[in-house]
Amino acid sequence: MARHKLENELIAIEVEEHGAELKSLVRKNTGKEYMWKADPKFWGRTSPVLFPFVGAVKEKQFRTKGQTYTMGQHGFARDMDFTLDSKTEDTLWFVLQSNEETMEKYPYAFTLRIGYHIEGNKLEVLWQVENPSEEELPFSIGGHPAFNRPKNCKIRFDVAGPLTSTTIVDGLVGNGTVDYELKDSYLTVTDHLFDADALVIENQNVHEVSLCDMEGNPYLTVTMDAPLFGIWSPAGPDVPFVCVEPWYGRCDSADFTGDLKDREWGNLIAPGGIWKARYTLSLIHISEPTRPLYIS
Fold it and tell me: Which spans in the chain are helix H?
């Protein structure tokens, strides 16, 4: 599958047409790779786009238009081939349009555009969902970027905390929550932080999440306006990456029995409408050489 590259004087990226997935983000003055290499020993993806669902639907089924449909976790866009729609010296746009295959499992017409724009030390990830039909379009969308990290690291948030995480049980939202105390806005990543699945943070007005070394020095910041987000890594020792996931949608609650349009955090686009969102990855202290931080 074809890959497309962009670079400026500071950073270089590579995006694969399959899934319109970001596969590489390199800091040019050191050659350091920030994106996880998709080793299936831990997790075989790098930065999939989650559409038209984020997370799992209860019993792998959802209901809409008076019928029941089967759907796997995180939808289907991540497993489909996009088309390169346009390329300039600083921006790539990929497009996926509904077709006979998608309509059989998700009975809505859509055009999904995924963009990547580089400027200085920043990469903007752009989402655009278009509704070409004469009915409302219900959907969710999310990012799932996985970043290389040192064996020991901290995560810094732009809030004082505590962070309240929704409980996830067997891939669905449970009844409880878990509070994570922050020390000076930092949370330390441990071997057991993700034993109970992802941290799912809702309604806490977090807009910046930075990955940091154990001294608290940030090396990458995710900036977003998403209403909720996930922090995830496979449970266990020596996992070499962590995901920071901006979401516009999430998995079903364990007791959910409603229609697709009733799912929590879902989005609706009016006939002929366009929905847009973005998040930004910033590499910190880009002009300075750095000591080795990452597990290779």
Answer: 100-105
